[in-house]
Amino acid sequence: MTYVVAEPCIKCKYTDCVDVCPVDCFYEGENFLVIHPDECIDCGACVPECPTEAIFSEDDLPEKWSEYKELNAKWVESWPNIDKKKEALPDAEEWKAVEKKREHFSEKPFGG
Question: Is 46 in a helix, a strand, or coil?
Answer without folding.
Answer: coil
